[in-house]
Amino acid sequence: MTAKPQTLDTRTLNRTLLARQWLLERRQAPIVEAIDWLNGLQAQEARPPFIALWSRLQAFRREALLGALADRSVVKATFTRGTLHLVSAGDYVAFRSTHALMLEAAMRPEMSEITKVVPIADVVAAGRAALEAGPLAFADLQTVLAERWPGLNGRHLAYAVRLNLPLVAMPHDGPWGGKAGGAFALADRWLGRAPDPKADVEGLVRRYLEAFGPATVADIQTFTAMKSLKAVVDGMALAAYRNEAGKTLYDVKDGPVADGGTPAPARFVADFDGIMLGHADRARVIAEEDRKRLWNQNLRVPAVFLVDGFAAGSWSLTASKTKAVLTATPFGTLTKAAKDDLTAEGEALLRFLAPEAKTVEVVFA
Fold it and tell me: What is the DSSP letter of 283?
């Protein structure tokens, strides 16, 4: 007789997520290892990945990540969910073709418009030919393609290239290693090797579960933006639990489950942090009423702070050469102890983000 799966309550899922995300205790790990474990770091904006690593690693230094980008062991590229991520060169080569299954579907309506005039393969070939001469800004790639096919939307043509052709964003000399409108290069030229042409969906699911599990199939599909993964999950040798709603949660066989009573320190997490994007049901990290209040229509995922393991408010930064201020806006009333813990953590974060500031201050709105 098959045993009934163990039920995991919300606090247990919360502490398990924080433990696996290195937010219960900072770890000592190399940059590449950390980024691999976290399944990459979303990086439409340059600064959030640095905050994500600062919150998770002991004595993290900005120069360590900038160095990894410069030596090409880490790259910025269109990856998970069709968004820009920082990923290791190894993971990019291993999983880019897996994500291509989703990337190619992401532009189906725009692709349909293009294919009425020209095969996508011809557009991709033209994009590659333009990039063979060297890195190009996205706007310049649009111009090249629009001149070739003047009746089509240049932006759509450039996105067709970006989603179908492995490209990496060039690191920038700025303080956070990137800027809007930066140049893209051919991945095989930048890395000296091409992505593995074989998709590894099971490998991608396993890597997700190691860092974000236990999770439902809907959670896996939300994080990866891939569809129809139930058959893949059913074919894998996985552990199974249930949540309090009775839904099946899948996990790697040796995935540690934390004690729901484990103390959780105050933490500040960045915009688009993985813990806020890792599940369809985000109750394990934020109450639904707070999620609705925080999320807005342009799909921005704001920076939040954690108290007792759960999102307890949002935060923002203003900085000058003389003073840096972190403003914490709680969802509700905070205890003095919580404010004290947040103040200590926030001041340390400010010293990391604004080392030139003569004074730092954490204020509560």
Answer: G
Same domain membership, residue 173 and residue 30: yes
> Tokens 């709105």 correspond to what residue?
365
Residue 52 lies in a domain: yes
Encode pLDDT of 182-228 as tens digits: 899 999 999 999 999 999 999 999 999 999 999 999 999 999 999 99
Distance CA 327, CA 306 (A): 14
Bond from prior residue into 175 cis (ω within 30 degrees of 0): no
Pick from 1-15, 79-93, 104-118, 223-237: least confident: 104-118
**274 phi and psi angles, rounded to 5 deg:** -60, -35
Contact 214, 241 (CB under 8 A): yes
The mean predicted confidence, pLDDT, of the chain is: 94
- Whether 111 has a pLDDT exceeding 90, the answer reads no
Pairing outcome for strands 239-242 and 84-88: unpaired
CB atoms under 10 Å from CB of 87, counted, come to 28
Q: Is residue 14 within 8 Å of residue 278, measured between CB atoms?
A: no
Domain end, chosen from 174, 191, 208, is at 191
Question: How much is the pTM?
Answer: 0.94
| Same domain assignment for residues 184 and 291 | no
Show the domain range for 66. Answer: 22-191
In a domain, 185, yes or no: yes
Domain's final residue, options 162, 191, 220? 191
> Which phi and psi angles does 212 have, rounded to 5°?
-125, -5
**In sequence order, what are the residues at sequence separation of 6 or more whose Cβ sits closer than 8 angstroms to the Cβ of residue 364?**
327, 328, 329, 330, 334, 339
Quickly count: other Cβ atoms within 10 Å of residue 257's Cβ: 18
Angle CA 299–60–346, to nearest 5: 60
Which of 21, 2, 31 has its CA nearest to residue 256?
21
- Evaluate whether residue 145 is within a structural domain: yes
Q: What would the two tokens of residue 33 be? A: 């290892």
- For residue 149, give the nearest of 164, 138, 160, 133 by alpha carbon: 160
Q: Count of domains in the chain?
A: 2
Residue 281 lies in a domain: no
153 in the same domain as 50: yes
